[in-house]
Amino acid sequence: MNMFKNAFNDLFDSKIIQYAFAPLFISVVFWGVVFNLFSSNIMSFIYSYISFLPFGENINHLLSNMGSTIVLMFLYYEAVILSVGVFSSFFIDKITSRINEKYYNVHQNNISVVEGLLVSLKGMLNFIIFFILTFYLLFVPVVNIFYQVFLWSMAIKKPLVFDSSAMFCDYKEFERKKNLKIWSVVFITSFIYFIPILSFFGYTLQLIIMTHFVLNNCSKIKKETIKN
Questions:
Q1: Mean pLDDT by 10 residues, the chain (228 residues)
Q2: Per-residue exposure over 156-182, b if at least 16 CB sit within 10 Å of its own CB, e if not
Q3: Do residues 185 and 146 touch, judged by C-beta distance below 8 A?
Q4: Are residues 24 and 225 in contact, defined by beta-carbon separation less than 8 angstroms?
């Protein structure tokens, strides 16, 4: 519980929140330009793709009744949420270093921004592919809630692991050892994306929580090593 309590406090830390606004602003502006310029092309692609699928005519009819504005707003929101992690790659070390400085004082290593970007882009690509193949589940009541959370978790899990742990340990090894707990933390915290306004800082909050999780484990290992 202390981990989650500290995470919410850290979200309003002056040295952290400034690095939460930057990737959010970039993501909002970038996708705003893309959707403003290519909204008609995006909708044409969606209708064309769905028309080739089973029940495609029914789904297109449903989307038409919803209106293109609602569909585009949904896709815009998804794009912003997904890409915040990508743009955050340029500021991650500032956030994780601040948390380490405040609570843990674990040895820090340099991280590769390029590797972080690739991990984030891969997570985004996985989301897009899985979404295209399984989007039918969005139309199933109740199931669509957990489906959406699973999609966000799948896209964000590996970027979160890299961003929170690469500076302090072998992130691949850490993920292998703590995979189930990591999935649990990411899945539970991904419900934050259903909360208006706070959702735009969801990735930063998840990063803070995951960094506390990582550093807490690193501190335990360090103490055990000293005792031995």
A1: 72 85 91 93 88 79 83 91 86 88 86 88 90 86 93 93 90 91 93 89 91 83 48
A2: bbbbbbbbbbbbbbebeebbeebeeeb
A3: no
A4: no
Q: How far is CA 111 from CA 90, 169, 182, in A?
A: 11, 10, 20
Distance CA 19, CA 56 (A): 42
Q: For residues 95 and 10, what is the distance between their CA atoms, to the nearest angstrom?
A: 9
Query: pTM of the entire structure?
Result: 0.85
Is the CB of residue 86 less than 8 Å from the CB of residue 115? no
DSSP states along 112-166: -HHHHHHHHHHHHHHHHHHHHHHGGGGGSTTHHHHHHHHHHHHHHHHHHHHHHHT
Structure tokens at 8: 């919410």
**What is the Cα Rg of the chain in Å?**
19
